[in-house]
Design brief:
Blueprint: E1 5-11, H1 13-25, E2 31-33, H2 35-42, E3 52-57, H3 61-71
Antiparallel strand pairs: 1-3, 2-3
Length: 74
């Protein structure tokens, strides 16, 4: 069965790693998409270093967004 992912946060790699640890403790898996790092590995410019994206399964979107807002109220 395919899992539908949804974007819950965009920010620096450090913030993403911090959020991933918190989400993991809450039992929520997440995936990081870093176009900048991917571009460097491929040998070209791939994006902005502060535009790393964090995705979670759609079934955990509401809970994950609450955690993100509590962690980084903007």
């Amino acid at each position: 069965m395919d899992t539908i992912l949804t974007l819950v946060y965009t920010g620096s790699d450090v913030n993403i790693q911090f959020l991933q640890n918190i989400l993991e403790k809450a039992g929520i898996n997440s995936i990081k998409k870093n176009n900048y790092e991917s571009g460097l590995r491929a040998g070209f410019y791939g994006g902005d270093i502060n535009q790393v994206q964090l995705f979670v399964p759609k079934t955990h979107q509401s809970e994950a967004k609450k955690i993100v807002q509590a962690t980084f109220p903007e």
